[in-house]
Amino acid sequence: MRVSLKLSVLAFGLALGTSTLPLARGDMDQDMKVLMNGNFVTADPENIKWEKNKSTPYGMVTVLLYGTPGQPGPYIFRAKMPSGYKLPPHRHPDERIVTVLKGTYWSGIGERYDPMKMAEFQVGAFYVTKAGTPHYSWARTEVIIQEMGTGPESGIQYVNPDDDPRH
Length: 167
Description:
Elements: H1 2-19, H2 25-31, E1 36-37, E2 40-41, E3 51-52, E4 61-66, E5 73-81, E6 86-91, E7 96-102, E8 105-109, E9 119-121, E10 126-129, E11 135-139, E12 143-151, E13 157-158
Antiparallel strand pairs: 1-2, 3-4, 4-5, 5-12, 6-11, 6-13, 7-10, 7-12, 8-9, 8-11
């Protein structure tokens, strides 16, 4: 049953991402608006309003598309990063499913930022980061990713507290 639910959530997220062609729970709940109209979820690129994200270094903007990260159940958001954007090593309490919608995105696993250990992801690439896994990223070009998780989640946790822009 649990595997079936994960597959259903995964299929929904992939369908939403392909048909419309990283975050602190508190920041996402307060600063992002879900694009829903009754029982129909839309993510029209022309009408998306990107919001600053206080839990990531300056430059990343996000939009919550579905769900509420602080509540039980699936949620989906998009993150846009400018060329050269660097996200320091961090963890999430939930598993994250990421699809690259635009640009060239690099990501690596580990507690130290190491460009030599990063993998390149092009448009259409998809990967999963298990809960609690330290990872980091870099946007070679302007990048838009779509990220899906399951709440309730307690937010991004930086490996090095000095990297946390909330402090």
